[in-house]
């Protein structure tokens, strides 16, 4: 690993980030890694995709390079660019190139947000050639066996204009994520917030009611992350109604009617 | 703190900006700060969000880095960029990076106006990792305990094309702001303008009538700021009708009918 | 004042540009200046807004920095930028920054034409902080008491896509301008053109007829400026019908029917 | 005049380009020049606007700076820019700045095609201040008495999105151009092509028939320029039908039906 | 001619590219060249426009500068730009400037694809001034008598947004091209492919059937170029049905029904 | 070959990538190569176009330069650009230029995704001139006999805005690809995955059922590549239902109903 390896890489190698498996997702990830196949994760906001990837990277002992994709992310942000430093132009590898050179896991979060040139740069890496051509340096990198590409997106709010083309999708082994089942989610919330298990159970119970409102009034159901926020504030002594208002109502909607619907569910649970 | 700390930072540490609390907003802000959770403020124009954040920053003894977001604000404006200085390229931290390095509060005003790459740069800072990756310098900054991210927007005039995605919203503890209740607003206006309390009360009374017109004819109700302007001009000797015309009518609308409706309310109060 | 102060600044300090007051606009301008409040002028094309601001700047003895806003004006055009000069990068203040540093009046003409980042750069200058953050130089300028910000626009032809957001508008004391009343306009036209007062009266009389056609056929009524042009050409010996054709018909419309309507009014007056 | 004055400037001072006056356009141009008023020319393609401006510039003994406007023309293309030359950045005046410095006529052809920032840069030059602010160099140039600004456009095919704003239009004295009356046009065509006057008369006669088709089938009537082309080819020995096909049919339309309509008129004249 | 003259220029001067005249097109081209008039060629894909221009350039003994226009072609691509070379900025002429300086033929293929600033740069070159202003170098080049400008486009698939403005079109002498008449086309195909004349006749016969399908099912009729491809493959020993499939069916359409329609015509000819 | 030739080029010359011919595609490719005609491949995602080109390049003993086209690919990415290296600007050939200089095969994958200037740069290379003009270096390269241009696209999901213009298409010999016939596909899947032939046959059988759903519910049928993925995971010990879920269901659709339809077919085959 190069001397510019980031703090996060080192951290990854030492402690295994907590992750509560729900099904056979760990096995599938490992098989894809062993067979050198790229992996696509699909699932809603805040359900644990990023945590899962951190967990698996640590378990497999590989450095993790995470990139949050967005409209203005260019292929050069992934592969690298020439920078002027001390009167010299010096090539600086991007995170994808580093993962290929060093043999690590490159995780592109919300890949559908990226520009087209980003997804196309992935093509030669995701067929049997496993190549990364760096046109600017004239290099053609061959990915080592311990390189893996993982991408994710949320199928719940893709635009028509923003979706993966079949010619990109069909290059990945894929799996769907969802919020964890109640028991697992209770354990996650309790572990992360320090709130007692049975108080977390009430929150998880509430979450399933709120999630049932999705599609009608809510763009997205309440995430496990927000449940952790809520439990954290309650554990710190904040009254339940204030904590739920700040974490399970206000972040979900600006609409007064929707907010009242959410509050009713909350009062029905804790009132 | 670095030697380039701005005048405003120093000021913040010495005098506590005046702020009249309305509910439990100070407690929620402090809890979010203690628990290292990012905070989202929602509320109309000129109701005191910026002042509130200044107040809390001073109370917590942390420097404040405020960024007014807009269409052309890029991620680099927040994180920093290389500048050519004296034949050398030198990295200059942006306000977000400074807040992370120095442990301060970074406040992004009207965050929905920013480009997508800006909101995405916030993602790793707003999950449990609290990381700020600087791809250009190869650094991966871990936010210290006394770093806090606060963002705000006005839910009243979001466009369809400009709104926070659920995957961003659900990363924040959130609270709604509104204009202060009459008594508190009177005190604010009197204190800021130097006009006698009872004359301010008449203006606040008028404001509630004008705010009732919002939605029908007015895009946004009259702000506390404009009441302060009005009281300031009256305190300086300007006739009431001229002062209200210049501060409570002309800034609110260009439409002749709407202006006349506003004037009628004014004359009914002061005529 | 810096040694690069422009010729216009010096001129401003020596002669008071002629301006014929119509109401209490001078008093309101002075009060806003004394109370350090930003000012918004609204009014049609060529009615004297720019002249009024020049007049007030001279009266108050402050240098004036005028910026005509447009689609491609960026925040950097107002605040300044680094320029390469003699192998060195040197920071060059923009007009807004100069007005803040030197204590002058910065006038942004047709502010609704500017890009969003321009209006947002004005926000910290237009609340009680009166600050101008220069992110590129790391400075945070506090505006002195003799700095004033004045902006203007023409409410007559704003697009839906181009209007001031309430969060910007509500930061200004505002006033409406219109064409001067007949007597004042006669005096202005006579003084500027050198044409005899009673001949100017006939032109002003004609102008009020032509302005009545606005909205039906004309996008904008004939401006005082065009009346001055017309009177100037007549004073120079041009026949009345030719002069009015060139200044009160051709500049107003390309439509043959509208032009004939205008000509009829002209012939009814001078025929 | 600077040592970089162009060949065309010199030419202008020596020979008076041929121009056949149609009405009082020369007098109006001279009056506008004497009174320091900017001038707007309106008229169809190829009717002689550019030639007229060349003629007047020569008559008044002023250098002429012509700029053909287009979508990508920026304010800097008019005012000037810094260029890197021999390791130094050197300011290079644009044509508008040269005209202001040297006292010449700046002619912006098809001004409606230009970007908004171009028209706004003209504003301070077209009110009584007659100023050209060069923000990049920090200069504020005052236009000398022998500077004149002339702009033109074709009202026949303006788009809704491309038109002069009233706030720009009302800064100009304006006049409409049309194709010259038959006798004048015959003289022009004969003089330019060398074809005998009576053969030119037949072409001019044909042109008036073809121009009558405009609006129904033709976007624009046949220009005087194309008549000169046609006469030139006939004078060089080309058969009439071939010459008219190549100059009065093919350049006007791609539509087979329209072409046949044009051919019928031609055959009716020459058949 | 400068020492950077391209290989193609030299070639042009030595061998006359084969061209089979169809009508008086060579005479018209020569007349336009003699009279210094610009020329516009209109016609479908692959009918021989480019070959015709090469032929005429060689016949007239002038170097040819061909530019294929596209969306991103800028005026600087035609006129030239400053390039950094060995620490020096050096001006490098574009193909249009070279043609003007050296006295050659500049051919802009598919000119409607170019950006607006490209067509406007042609305006001063296409009126009687025949000037090319190079604003960046401050030069004003006068075109020599042996300079000629030729442009072309395909009227068959212009978009509404992409068409020559009348003010540009009316600057050119124009002519329409079409596929050559059968006998000429047979000779062309036989000469280029080496296939026997009577076998080529069958292909040309087939082409006229396929061209009749244009407009209904086909965007564009089969080009002479594709006939040459087809004959070349047949001459090389490929079975007729395979050769026609690969050259007269697949390149014309992706639609199964259209392909079958084409195949039926082919089988009816060769079956 | 230059000393910067990539690893892939060398590889190509040593081992012949496995390819299972389906019809006369190899003969057509060779004929096009011999006759110096450019080739267009059409076909669905993952059916083997890229593999076919690799195979033919190796068979013909020519280096292969593959470019995946996308929205932001510019002509300079193909032809080359000046790069600053060690204070010097040095020209670096792009892949197309290298293929022309060295005599190789340049393959542009998904060419319809490229910008217009990319397709236009191919025009002089795809007519009888076979030229590549490098405007920036002033070179005009003539392609050697062993240069060949191959492009591909997927006709199944072209947008209206993204398609090859006839003037580009008609420059290519073309052929359609489809998924291989069952027997060939079984052999490919078995060879690539190591799974027994008869188990592969069941998968290929399933694929034909799933492909029948295309158009109704699926944008694109399951690719041979995904069959290889599936067989690979099964060969590695993964249960059939899990492997098919991860490779033949999740990568094809996010729609619950479609996924269930796919699963039914799978269960009907393996249940």
UniProtKB/TrEMBL annotation, chains A, B, C, D, E, F:
InterPro entries: ATPase_dyneun-rel_AAA, CbbQ/NirQ/NorQ/GpvN, CbbQ_C, P-loop_NTPase. Gene3D superfamilies: P-loop containing nucleotide triphosphate hydrolases. The keyword Amino-acid biosynthesis does not apply. GO terms for molecular function: ATP binding; ATP hydrolysis activity. Keywords: ATP-binding, Nucleotide-binding. Transmembrane segments: none annotated. Residues 185-268 form the CbbQ/NirQ/NorQ C-terminal domain. Residues 38-172 form the ATPase dynein-related AAA domain. The keyword ATP-binding applies. Belongs to the CbbQ/NirQ/NorQ/GpvN family. This is Nitric oxide reductase NorQ protein.
